[in-house]
Write a structure and sequence with these properties.
alpha+beta, six-stranded antiparallel β-sheet, about 45% helix, single chain, about 140 residues, about 25% strand
Length: about 140
């Protein structure tokens, strides 16, 4: 790897912070932000007793959207959640948590990105109507 590639790789990695938590949980603070708050999207990696890992955002996307006047129960969010199941390993759970199951360590990094991506999408869709009403 040449110097430019190493510099780019180092700079990209520096955008993410991995913070160990209790019970082996790792919190990954991503550079992505929720538009209504500026809070960073945090994804949790939880080891499962039966093997593999649960990757989730702890319901924070829905929480921040609701705090901003968004509607996570809207038809547009429901349609998006159904479509998400066909294109992503991430699913919106009944408790409003975005979750993926990583069968092995090699799936963790891409699934962290997919959960963070879905978190931003959910937040944007849930708050889009609220933002439009505010500008009327």
């Amino acid at each position: 790897m040449d110097l430019a590639a190493r510099t780019i790789a180092s700079n990209l990695c520096a955008l993410f912070k991995v913070i160990p938590d209790e019970a082996g949980i790792q919190r990954v603070v991503t550079p992505l932000e929720y538009s209504s708050t500026g809070e960073r999207v945090v994804v949790r990696v939880r080891p499962l007793e039966e093997g593999g890992f649960q990757i989730d955002e702890n319901g924070e996307s829905a929480m921040y959207a609701q705090m901003a006047g968004g509607d996570v129960d809207s038809d547009v969010v429901s349609r998006w959640a159904e479509e998400l199941l066909t294109v992503s390993p991430v699913a919106l759970q009944d408790d409003e948590t975005l979750l993926a199951h990583a069968p092995s360590v090699k799936h963790i990094a891409p699934y962290v990105f997919r959960v963070a991506e879905a978190a931003q999408q959910l937040h944007a869709l849930a708050t889009s109507r609220a933002e439009r009403k505010a500008s009327d």
